[in-house]
């Protein structure tokens, strides 16, 4: 399998070459040259695999359609080591439960950091360790986080050979629970840097370091952001697992509703659907930051500036620009790299928007690709959390609540699966506002706030961060 760039760059690459890379050299995102097709017989085989051997075996089957530069036995071992009951809490890994009639919930958030990013990041950690060892290389991951992504990356990379993580976060601005999750890690390869500033200061530092090409090369600086194809690929697996749990025969269809920010999660659903998984609709649920809902309603994609990016109670969806959206648009415009380059490198980058409303391709988003969308606000979130708890005895987090709210607007005859992207304990303040009680806390997190913390506090100064990286790499 070869991978191409959405902006038409000539050279195609194999999986392990793009694994450790970010964007393609022309600024595009990587996609496979074609989506492997799952016919009825193959889907039946996958159904049997999940039933008899479990999620890790299913993951191996799907991944091996896209990865041909890791020996099968090694890839199988990587999947087996990643998707365990020990790490994800259940044998099903992503159990599907009923909420209300044919409205179902697929739990993706029982990993180490209680958010769906663990599903992909845990695999990435093992793939990185494997590939770096094979090449005899090392990697220093530098990141900025306001909570979720940073902790998922740290829990994926902790103790991994050949990898160090330097994670900046705004000092004193994460919730006590989030700080405890990250700062209690005592692994030597994990470095928490609390920056005296806001999240944007952290991001600026990461950008400045990455733009110092000599430093970046000397210290092998890398990232783990959501445009990484391996992360997306790992997510394709749970669309299959959700479908197979919700159906008894391949003649049945299901729909998915996905709480969305950077379009990474639902883009994996798009890939699964393109492979032939019988998905009726893919419903994008946004919060008040509704650039994606606006696009699917109108055909206009208009990114927002910082002043119009709202801080909401589903903060992991607070985006102004959806970094994975280009992958879907590339397919939508008939995989035309020049056109995609024009839409993103000219339209989005220079004018902050593009307009496909008059383009015949826009109709395909719904008609051919099954997309629909909706939006949920703080008031909707509170009402949905309350209703779900009172009528069904189920406590859901704020992001999942956005999904449930929007899913109810798109119910059809087929099962509708809402992806549960986090657990309520991570967003305690909003749960209290909705339910007037504390959220349930999984036992393994009792007392986490009292554990010793490993973090250095630093001014928002690029040179100090560079000095820390250089010092750490010396020893
Ligand atoms: C990251 C995240 C999302 C958004 O996922 P995207 O892939 O960016 O669309 C939704 N919910 C939670 C809890 C998240 O952490």
Automatic annotation (TrEMBL):
Q: What is its EC number?
A: 4.2.3.1
Upper classification of the organism: Bacteria, Pseudomonadati, Pseudomonadota, Betaproteobacteria, Burkholderiales
Task: Please report the stretch or stretches of sequence annotated as the Tryptophan synthase beta chain-like PALP domain.
Answer: 97-337
Instruction: Indicate the segments forming the Threonine synthase N-terminal domain, all copies.
Output: 3-83
Q: Which NCBIfam families match?
A: thrC (TIGR00260)
Q: Which PANTHER family match?
A: THREONINE SYNTHASE FAMILY MEMBER, THREONINE SYNTHASE-LIKE 2
Origin, by domain of life? Bacteria
A GO term for molecular function:
threonine synthase activity
Which family does the record claim for this protein? Belongs to the threonine synthase family.
Q: Which Pfam families match?
A: PALP, THR4_C, Thr_synth_N
Q: What class of enzyme is it?
A: lyase
- The protein's name is Threonine synthase
Family matches, as CDD domains? Thr-synth_2 (cd01560)
Q: What cofactor does this protein call for? A: pyridoxal 5'-phosphate
Q: Which InterPro entries match?
A: Thr_synth_N, Thr_synth_N_sf, Thr_synthase-like, Threonine_Synthase, TrpB-like_PALP, TrpB-like_PALP_sf
Q: Which UniProt keywords apply?
A: Lyase, Pyridoxal phosphate
- Is Lyase found in the keyword set? yes
């Amino acid at each position: 399998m070869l991978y191409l760039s959405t902006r038409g760059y000539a050279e195609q690459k194999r999986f392990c070459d793009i694994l450790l890379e970010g964007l393609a050299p022309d600024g595009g995102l990587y996609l496979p040259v074609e989506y492997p097709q799952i016919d009825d017989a193959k889907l039946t085989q996958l159904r049997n695999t999940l039933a008899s051997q479990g999620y890790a075996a299913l993951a191996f089957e799907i991944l091996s359609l896209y990865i041909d530069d890791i020996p099968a036995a090694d890839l199988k071992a990587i999947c087996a080591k990643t998707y365990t009951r020990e790490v994800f809490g259940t044998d099903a890994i992503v159990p599907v439960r009923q909420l209300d009639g044919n409205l179902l919930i697929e739990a993706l958030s029982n990993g180490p950091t209680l958010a769906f990013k663990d599903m992909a990041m845990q695999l990435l950690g093992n793939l990185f360790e494997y590939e770096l060892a094979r090449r005899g290389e090392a990697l220093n991951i530098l990141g900025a986080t306001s909570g979720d992504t940073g902790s998922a990356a740290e829990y994926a990379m902790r103790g991994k050979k050949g990898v160090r993580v330097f994670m900046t976060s705004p000092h004193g601005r994460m919730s006590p629970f989030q700080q405890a999750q990250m700062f209690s890690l005592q692994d030597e390869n994990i470095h928490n840097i609390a920056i005296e500033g806001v999240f944007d200061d952290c991001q600026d530092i990461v950008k400045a370091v990455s733009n110092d090409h000599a430093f970046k090369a000397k210290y092998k600086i890398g990232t783990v952001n959501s445009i990484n194809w391996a992360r997306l690929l790992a997510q394709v697996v749970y669309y299959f697992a959700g479908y197979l749990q919700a159906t008894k025969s391949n003649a049945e269809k299901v729909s998915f509703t996905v709480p969305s920010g950077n379009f990474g999660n639902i883009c994996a659903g798009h890939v699964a659907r393109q492979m032939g998984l019988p998905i009726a609709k893919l419903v994008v649920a946004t919060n008040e930051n509704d650039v994606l809902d606006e696009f699917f309603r109108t055909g206009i994609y208009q990114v927002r500036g910082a002043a119009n990016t709202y801080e909401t109670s589903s903060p992991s969806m607070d985006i102004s620009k959806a970094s994975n959206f280009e992958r879907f648009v590339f397919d939508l415009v008939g995989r035309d790299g020049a056109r995609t380059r024009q839409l993103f490198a000219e339209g989005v980058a220079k004018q902050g928007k593009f307009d496909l409303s008059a383009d015949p391709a826009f109709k395909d988003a719904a008609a051919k690709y099954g997309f629909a969308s909706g939006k949920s606000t703080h008031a909707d979130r509170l009402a949905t959390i309350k209703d779900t708890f009172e009528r069904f005895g189920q406590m859901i987090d704020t992001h999942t609540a956005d999904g449930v709210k929007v899913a109810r607007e798109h119910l059809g005859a087929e099962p509708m699966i809402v992806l549960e992207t986090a657990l309520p304990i991570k967003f305690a303040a909003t749960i209290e506002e909705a339910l007037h009680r504390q959220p349930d806390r999984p036992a393994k997190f009792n007392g986490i706030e009292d554990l010793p913390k490993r973090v250095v506090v630093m001014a928002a100064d690029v040179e100090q961060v560079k000095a820390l990286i250089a010092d750490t790499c010396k020893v």
